Amino acid sequence: MADSVLYQLDGAVATITINRPTARNALTAESKVALLEALRTASGDDHVRAVVVTGAGPAFCSGQDLREHADLLAAGGSPLDTVRHHYNPIIATIADMPKPVVAALPGVAAGAGASLAFACDFRIAAERASLLLAFARVGLGADSGASWTLPRLVGAAKAAELLMLAEPIDSATALRLGLLTWVVPDDELPAAAASFAARLATGPTLAYAAIKESLLYGSSHTLTESLEKEADLQERLGSSADHQSATEAFVAKQPPVYHGR
User: Fold this and answer.
1) What confidence tens digit (pLDDT) does each residue in 38-80 have?
2) Residue 108's closest CA among 66, 28, 169, 39?
3) What pTM was estimated for this model as a whole?
4) What is the mean pLDDT of residues 148-152?
5) What is the mean pLDDT of residues 140-167?
């Protein structure tokens, strides 16, 4: 894995860090490939039960590296092929990952960086963090799933406003709008994200995966189809060891212990 993306395991938690702090963790072709590799590694590792995605230094991710983008444009290339080849697989991997993904935002998340955060299941931000749907500022539409995730977080009208006006959103406003799960003091972010991910890692992993699957399915299917999907998932979970032990723990008035199987 490239140095531009770091992968660290701590028990059942995998932390993926975009590691280009001097460039506000802007994404180059190399770092996008490395980020996708890291996400796929975490997704496929049965020992990993929760994932944190964060950025090194004072930023989360400022989106596409526009220096690389400009160089490709000047050379007559097709830099926006990266949406299909890089960004789309990254977002799909997060959405399909059968375990919770937490975005920890130490600072700005802009453009595809904001979209990356929105694709995660939870977003914890430092007070100094901000969001910027910067696409229109460079004459582009939304990408990396923002046209899908953003309306589901804030509604269609507010999503259009945020995307078209492309103005910075401070952490307090983002929290009020529902773009963030919660906000913590700047120096408490790493510990808060690690603690929350550790809590998720001891939780009912199979249930989390089923919830993610049903929400994704329900977003594009009818009520009747979604009811049937829920029934299928419940049948699958009903035979799991976690469900059996949790039910026994409930009857015995004891806290459940989950093993993700």
Assistant:
1) 999 999 999 999 999 999 999 999 999 877 767 777 777 667 7
2) 169
3) 0.92
4) 96
5) 96
Taken in order of first residue, the domains within the chain and their CATH numbers are 5-201 (3.90.226.10), 205-251 (1.10.12)
The label of the residue with tokens 């799991």 reads 240
Measured between alpha carbons, how far is 113 from 100 in angstroms, rounded to an integer?
Answer: 18
Q: Which amino acid is at 168?
A: P
User: Per-residue pLDDT averaged across 218-226, rounded?
Assistant: 95
| DSSP collapsed to 3 states, the chain | CCCCEEEEEECCEEEEEECCHHHCCCECHHHHHHHHHHHHHHHHCCCCCEEEEEECCCCCECCECHHHHHHHHHCCCCCCHHHHHHHHHHHHHHHHCCCCEEEEECCCEECHHHHHHHHCCEEEEECCCEEECCHHHHCCCCCCCHHHHHHHHHCHHHHHHHHHHCCCEEHHHHHHHCCCCEEECHHHHHHHHHHHHHHHHCCCHHHHHHHHHHHHHHCCCCHHHHHHHHHHHHHHHHCCHHHHHHHHHHHCCCCCCCCCC
Tell me whether strands 13-18 and 5-10 are parallel, antiparallel or unpaired.
antiparallel
Q: Tokens in use for 119?
A: 């694709």
The tokens of 17 are what?
């860090």
> What mean pLDDT is predicted for residues 207-221?
94
Greater confidence, 70 or 97? 97
Q: Spell out the residues 6+ positions from residue 10 whose beta carbon is closer than 8 angstroms to its own.
A: 194, 198
Q: How far apart are CA 154 and CA 50, in angstroms?
A: 25
Give the model's pLDDT for residue 249. Answer: 85
Tokens read off for 88 = 């789309």
